[in-house]
């Protein structure tokens, strides 16, 4: 018994019972170096196959995202009774689950943005160049258009008769309500992206990059639960554009600006909050 008690004591002494938290934890790992900001314009990227491979990955991921999610929406709205379908919760799971899966699949190739608002927020934080940001957004939009187009090709009449998954401000809400919902919803998403992919956290906690797709997908799920009744939940300009182009009716375009302005404002606020308040990067010593 004495030997076992000694082993216990050694184990207790080997691993500290109190782990540093908050600012104490942030002061650990003095060898951590803040990665340099991405260049504003990097012409050399245009000659690299990895640059185009990343764009193709964004196209395919956004294509699959629109295909699965809009098809889920069509399955819900065509049913005469919502109890016979997956309902709003199922739609939210489809969006969140696809983001979880697609971020996991493409993070190592393109970063797994699948959303122009995410790309815009990361660009503002100097995580990627303007060259790459513009290329990603173009490929995301093209992928979204193709994904919605395939859904319409499967069931054209049903697609046109049931709104085509296009984002609009629901009756009973103002355009200001819709804009606010898109700003806050995108803030939640992009703030989660920054937190889940933070380089300093990755250096301190090795499990963070492995788990990153999970909180990002879960954030998308929760935002959809909250805002589907208001705007159908955009928080992704490519998703909104793809559905609007393929559906192509006046009321889909009337509110379409909300689904670009709102997400871009939300992404900018999230980038500002994370970089200035959470990480305090502008206030760090240059030495």
Automatic annotation (TrEMBL):
Where is this protein chiefly located?
membrane
Q: Where does the chain cross the membrane?
A: 56-78, 90-112, 133-151, 178-196, 208-230, 257-278
Gene Ontology CC, one term: membrane
- What are the subcellular locations of this protein? Endomembrane system
Question: PROSITE patterns in the record, alphabetically?
Answer: MIP (PS00221)
Membrane topology per the entry is:
Multi-pass membrane protein
Pfam families (UniProt xref): MIP (PF00230)
Q: Which InterPro entries match?
A: Aquaporin-like (IPR023271), Aquaporin_transptr (IPR034294), MIP (IPR000425), MIP_CS (IPR022357)
Q: Which GO terms describe its molecular function?
A: channel activity
Keyword check for Mitochondrion: no
Q: Which domain of life is it from?
A: Eukaryota
Coiled coil spans: none
Keywords (alphabetical) are:
Membrane, Repeat, Transmembrane, Transmembrane helix, Transport
Which protein family is named in the record?
Answer: Belongs to the MIP/aquaporin (TC 1.A.8) family. PIP (TC 1.A.8.11) subfamily.
Q: What is this protein called?
A: Putative aquaporin PIP1-2
């Amino acid at each position: 018994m004495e030997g076992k008690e000694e082993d216990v004591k050694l184990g207790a002494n080997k691993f500290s019972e109190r782990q540093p938290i908050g600012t104490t934890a942030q002061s650990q790992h003095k060898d951590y170096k803040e990665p340099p900001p991405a260049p504003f314009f990097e012409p050399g990227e245009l000659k690299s196959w990895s640059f185009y491979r990343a764009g193709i990955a964004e196209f395919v991921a956004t294509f699959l995202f629109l295909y699965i999610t809009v098809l889920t929406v069509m399955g819900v709205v065509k049913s005469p009774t919502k109890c016979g379908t997956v309902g709003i919760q199922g739609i939210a799971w489809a969006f969140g689950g696809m983001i979880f899966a697609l971020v996991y699949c493409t993070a190592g190739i393109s970063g797994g943005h699948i959303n122009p608002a995410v790309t815009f927020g990361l660009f503002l934080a100097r995580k990627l160049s303007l060259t790459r940001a513009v290329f990603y957004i173009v490929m995301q939009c093209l992928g979204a258009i193709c994904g919605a187009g395939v859904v319409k090709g499967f069931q054209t009449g049903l697609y046109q008769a049931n709104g085509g998954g296009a984002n609009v401000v629901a009756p009973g809400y103002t355009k200001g309500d819709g804009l606010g919902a898109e700003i806050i919803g995108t803030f939640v998403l992009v703030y989660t992206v920054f937190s889940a992919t933070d380089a300093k956290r990755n250096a301190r906690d090795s499990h963070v990059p492995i788990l990153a797709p999970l909180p990002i997908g879960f954030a998308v799920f929760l935002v959809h639960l909250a805002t589907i009744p208001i705007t159908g939940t955009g928080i992704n300009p490519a998703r909104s554009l793809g559905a609007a182009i393929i559906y192509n009716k006046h009321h889909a375009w009337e509110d379409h600006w909300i689904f670009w302005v709102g997400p871009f404002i939300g992404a900018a606020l999230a980038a500002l909050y994370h970089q200035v308040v959470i990480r305090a990067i502008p206030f760090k010593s240059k030495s």
